[in-house]
Write a structure and sequence with these properties.
The protein has 187 residues and is mainly beta. It has one helix and nine strands; from the N terminus they run αβββββββββ. The chain has a single domain, classed as Allene oxide cyclase-like (AOC barrel-like). The chain has an eight-stranded antiparallel beta barrel with strand order 1-3-4-5-6-7-8-9. The protein binds 2-acetamido-2-deoxy-beta-D-glucopyranose (NAG) (3 copies). The site of one 2-acetamido-2-deoxy-beta-D-glucopyranose has 2 residues, from loops. Pfam families: Dirigent (PF03018).
């Protein structure tokens, strides 16, 4: 996929050089609006539905059973997730943090999710900083675009967008590995 925005040629490492450690102390006010930084983040989300140690659990479903679905997911189902995120597609690669939130099956044909997570970083100077990603996830499309709507710590005032792809999907268990690439402006 071609990079649609050449000005975002900043990578995580560069962000690490520019960013100031997160602090819960009060920021100076007014917040200078011209100090936007850019970060390009890439990581993998491991969405494990199967036991043992599932990190995505179904907490709600249509009480009247399942209607026809092209995807195996049924309208009305809600899954709460606490998925590990890692640097590479291997679940044993460097842990970066967790994706915590939920997704619900929001189209009657089971093809479209409402996906809302806080991506919480847990290493180095990023430890404790987070970004909020909220949007639609039409899972049968190869690339889905989701808005980045906010953040904390290093990612205060975050706004941007993320591309999400299904890197691997186990049809027997429903377990998925997602690749997520985010382009973020932040304070
Ligand atoms: C599940 O979690 C337990 C407790 O953390 C651990 O001992 C076990 O190895 C895990 N099992 C799998 C299959 O990951
Ligand atoms: C479930 O289906 C029955 C029969 O079609 C209907 O009467 C009932 O209202 C439905 N309940 C829900 C919660 O949709
Ligand atoms: C992240 O911060 C927590 C709480 O402040 C601390 O317990 C943990 O060791 C830190 N982890 C890393 C990898 O720095």
């Amino acid at each position: 996929m071609a990079n649609p925005l050449p000005p975002f040629a900043f990578f995580f490492l560069l962000c690490l050089l520019l960013a100031t450690p997160s602090s819960t102390s009060s920021p100076t006010f007014p917040i200078p609006i011209n100090s936007d930084r850019q970060s390009h983040l890439q990581f993998y989300i491991h969405d494990k539905i199967s036991s043992p140690n599932a990190t995505a659990i179904k907490v709600a479903a249509d009480p009247n059973g399942s209607r026809a679905s092209a995807t195996g997911l049924h309208f009305g189902s809600i899954y709460v997730i606490d998925d590990p995120i890692t640097e590479g597609p291997d679940p044993n690669s460097k842990p970066l943090g967790r994706a915590r939130g939920f997704y619900s099956v929001s189209s009657t044909d089971g093809s479209d999710l409402y996906f809302t997570v806080n991506v919480i970083f847990m290493y180095g100077i990023y430890n404790g900083s987070s970004v909020a990603i909220v949007g639609r996830d039409p899972i049968i499309e190869k690339v889905r675009e989701l808005p980045v709507v906010g953040g904390t710590g290093i990612f205060r005032l975050a706004r941007g967008f993320a591309f999400m792809k299904t890197h691997a999907f186990d049809t027997a268990t429903g377990d998925a590995v997602l690749f997520l690439e985010a382009y973020i402006l932040h304070h």
